[in-house]
Amino acid sequence: DILNLKGISRAGIGGRLVVYLYGYPVIARSRMFTGDKSKSIKNFSSPDGSYGFRLEQDSKHAVIIPEKPVALYNSRKKLMAAGIRKFGIDLSFIKPDEEKWKRIAEAYEKSANPPDTVKFNFKNGLM
After folding, report:
1. Averaged in consecutive runs of 10 residues, what is the pLDDT profile of the chain (127 residues)?
2. Regarding beta strands 42-45 and 52-58, do their DSSP bridges make them parallel or antiparallel, or are they unpaired?
3. What's the pTM?
């Protein structure tokens, strides 16, 4: 969340910190749910229903990722003001699609979050 990122930056490592601006961050990883990769994706929601999640296969593990990608493009200036200069865009869990990648890059250039994305815990803090 933004408060923790600011605290880390004030501690002197903001210049080395890479902040994730777009993608499907892995929330949990487990070997217990691995199995047939051809099985359908399992969807579920947070207890309060505010976020959706899905279970995916990643190498030898099952991972839980958000149903919608997390995007923080419109917070980049705020992060830079906090001393953070390095940012990452993760295309894991996104099928190759040149048009989609183009829209993701254009949104980054405009500092505008692409449609159908969430900020997840960036604004509301850790749950």
Report:
1. 83 83 91 59 76 82 90 92 90 92 94 91 59
2. antiparallel
3. 0.79
